[in-house]
Amino acid sequence: MSKKVDVLGIEFEHTTKTEIIYTLEKRIRDNKKTFIVTANPEIVMYAQRDSQYKNIVQSADYILPDGIGIIMGAKLLKNPLPERIPGFDLMKDLLTIANKEQLRVFFLGARENVLNKAIDNVKHDYPGIQIAGCHHGFFNEEDPEVATMVQESNPDIVFVALGFPRQERWIRNNAHLFQQGIFMGVGGSFDVLSGTVKRAPALWRKLNIEWLYRLIKQPQRWKRMTFLPIFMLKVIFTRKQDSRSS
Ligand code: UDP
Question: Between the chain's N and C termini, which has fewer beta carbons within 10 Å?
């Protein structure tokens, strides 16, 4: 599994959710350290503006397409990706593996009350998981205390819910402290896990309009959506350039 699909400079893994879960399960068994980024168009656009962030994202072992925009972009670029792999779904699948294998999971990020509720739900729904530890997401990144706490908890999986670009930066800056483990930025997933934010119903997800549900529920996010048409325009422009040069 090594084919990559370039979408505006970010190299996505050409894989399905089933395949990547199989690979990750194997990497856990083999004690390999793994950095996962689930990138949406907003992340790709941000990486275009910030080369340091782009380098961090590109240093991940697997960059997966979170968001229908990436799938549409790859298709327009005539290099389609098999399917969308939402970060939240991947996190749930990893929780299921952790439950089965009694793995140690660290939860880093979100507001303290949200985090505590999320942990309560995890304890209830995945009783086999060993909670290696948790810490809210409002701390000073320069202070090594939190990273040391995560390191000393000896985790198999670390979910980092600090929102981008902070979560990917935190993982990159601290990865050297660990010999093994899965490290994944999960954005607002603890908010959903805690029940504070509702996920779109299955039909909306199936129709690929989860983003619309989010916009209706959290209209304050509309500004963050304006990047989507710009992303699509950039893809179309890149396609035109590519077809001229070939
Ligand atoms: N968050 C955090 N520390 C911060 C900023 C954000 O822990 O300094 C948390 C926030 O509480 C939320 C999550 O990061 O739980 C990400 O939120 P957002 O909806 O912005 O992320 P997205 O899913 O859009 O990447």
Answer: C
